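Appendix B, example 12.
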Amino acid sequence: MSAQSFPLVTIDEIRAAAARIADIAVRTPLVRAPFPGLSGYGTDKEIFLKAESLQPIGAFKIRGAANKILQLTPTEIARGVITYSSGNHAQGVAYAAREVRAKAVIVMPSNAPAIKRAATLAMGAEIVDVGLASSERLAKSDELVKAHGYVVIPPYDDEQIITGQATCGLEIIESLPNVDLVLAPVSGGGLLSGVAAAVKQLSPRTRVFGVEPELAGDTAESFRTGAIVTWAAELTSRTIADGLRTQSVGARNFAHIQAFVDGIITVTESEIRAAMRAIVAATRLVPEPSGAVAAAALLFHASELPPYATAVAVVSGGNVDPALLAQILTES
């Protein structure tokens, strides 16, 4: 799969998306993270967290969903929309669909976190349950589209979704033009592909890395081999990072990753949990496990990263089950 397989989103398209979604998505802050011994406190490094956990739905997914849904025609809105998601994209679609008064149907895996399921229902969406595999969600979505004519809002492998997520990268460079290193979580690839496209087009010198759980490292393998690989659902579902359990990276996303991303790092489950504690202690931001992986790479994999004076880690979401958060925060 070469980077030329699909057209790459342009900076003009990203800026247009930012204007389009301005009344729905929040321009999130860069929060300084003084991690003891690593950044701040007289060290030679500064680390900032891009707080996407502060979006209206608690995650970056509102950006892509809003960008796609706000471009639907009145006829398409009347048909209703559908997506397949473990939680955060579900909430993004439900939220944006409510803004345009469209019906929203969400195909969810049976192990989706209760907090994300409840939030999606609260926004008026209809949930259809399937098994754990990404392929099952896609198959059920296709079945419902054929039966009811819904418009599909893909979770990541879509040009307008990528462009919407790219507004996160646009904001990073606008707020911190001299940033040396940007890290973002990767699963299906919507966030990483968009962030990297924006960052590299505005600041080619800035290095961009993706981060994913070791237990769901399909994108790292794909990046290393140069071809998309698929991991079984029983493998990717092992990670605590429920938002990063996709079985393979999207084709359009991989094209952008090949064009704009400098490397991909995997982190362990214990590193994800430790990064969650470190983020809360340093910034008082509340990350979900998926939202802590980028910071985990900075904290535990410095030897795999290029030298930097200023780095940004995207905290992609904060929709964590309260009981799980309490358990992690009280671990030794």
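The two ends are 44 Å apart (CA to CA). The first strand starts at residue 30 and ends at 32.
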